[in-house]
Amino acid sequence: MKNIGFLDACRNAIGTAHVLTDDTDKAAYLTDQRQRYTGQALAIVKPADTAEVAAIVKLCNTFHIPIVPQGGNTGLVLGSVPDQSGQAIVLSLKRLNRIRAVDALNHTITVEAGCILQHAQEAAAAEQRLLPLSLAAEGSCTIGGNLSTNAGGTAVLRYGNTRELCLGLEVVTAQGDILHGLRGLRKDNTGYDLRDLFIGAEGTLGIITAAVLKIFPRPQVQLTALAAVQTPADALRLLSLAQQRCGATLTGFELMSDLCLQLVAKHFPQLPFPFPERHPQYVLMELSDSELAPHASTLLEAVIGEALEQGVCQDAVLATSTAQSRALWQLRESISSAQAKEGKNIKHDVSLPISRIAEFIAVTDALLQQHFPGCRNVTFGHLGDGNLHYNVSPPLGVGEEQFIARQAEINRVVHDSVDSMGGSISAEHGLGALKREEILRYKSPVEMALMRTIKQALDPLNLMNPGKVI
């Protein structure tokens, strides 16, 4: 009876068409992006604006109904899908998809949480501005999800994570009040930083409904190079050289192992491999410059030339057109899809001090071979900011399910190694439900106590994305 009254109230608040209770209608919102977990929900509720979000949250408070906020549902840690109790609603923000304003002079864009990242990028580009947040899922992920997980992407080296790109937030609190914080200010020292509490909180403290993000003058030129190196240590030497010679023009610096590109070649044979022979590791570099092309081209050629002379890299390909640059980036962006086509794997999204990445890869590769002989490490990521996607695939000939059954053991080896080197077990994907218990091994009791205090203060009924993060 309680649920019937709640659903009727939701229908009155936002319209019957936007409260989905049929199993067929709900299905698309209940399974995670990797198709490994399906939860259950009382309903899928799709408000159209911030006022309707607030109305739904107030109803959830009245009826004590848990809320799972969801944007594009592209997350990898079960943060945006409900559990299997069927007691929660999924609050879809897809209808909050508007670009509210682009202020070219203030270099800001105000967007709603359900706006797809690519659409926000295009709105900035229409004003000759750059929204630098860029990741493989940008055609389907949403701004709210990017903020809720503090997404990283390929340009963090120069522009920072989503947190660094956000100036202000509009948030519906756990009580259904609206925090009006859409201020496009670089300086606002008027008390506690409420904005940063909600960024990276994965919807456990409140629901982000809109944001003011930084945008930048569009670069006059973007140049890309793919360099072949022997070891991750050589890749780090190349990074240091590029930073010294190129400064702020160095926008992206991605590491890919040879196995990564072997999988891409296997599953996407239409993508040409740029070198006549294979190498152990590859680095994808991008420079963006406000000056004309010859300036950036001179910088990039000088870095590659010096690296070749010093033996830091063995070969390199410099893109001479936009099409060639896109082709090089497509190799990088196809790794996850190629690994998915290859079969199930155990993913790790970790961060480390940049100076220890080579050591981490060498030590952890050896530990995994010792405990799980023949396993294949698909290692790639944002070397410039210390973020590795350190994925482990089954040995050839070993069944997927047999290998996945040992996921907890593999996670322990990897995560303990990360922790021993001062790293984090979640760089940009968040904790969700997948790493909620795992983090207890690595966060100090003081940190966990403070996080619980904040959660209790802001969401005393524990209705906001329960079972996630904490």
Automatic annotation (TrEMBL):
GO biological process: respiratory electron transport chain
GO terms for MF: catalytic activity; FAD binding
Entry-linked SUPFAM superfamilies: FAD-binding/transporter-associated domain-like, FAD-linked oxidases, C-terminal domain
InterPro entries: FAD-bd_oxidored_4_C, FAD-bd_PCMH, FAD-bd_PCMH-like_sf, FAD-bd_PCMH_sub1, FAD-bd_PCMH_sub2, FAD-linked_Oxase-like_C, FAD-oxidored/transferase_4, Oxid_FAD_bind_N
FAD-binding PCMH-type domain segment(s): 37-218
Keywords recorded for this protein, A-Z: FAD, Flavoprotein
Domain of life according to the entry: Bacteria
Transmembrane segments: none
Reported cofactor(s): FAD
One matching Pfam family: FAD-oxidase_C
Family: Belongs to the FAD-binding oxidoreductase/transferase type 4 family.
Protein name: FAD linked oxidase, C-terminal domain protein
Organism this protein belongs to: Collimonas arenae
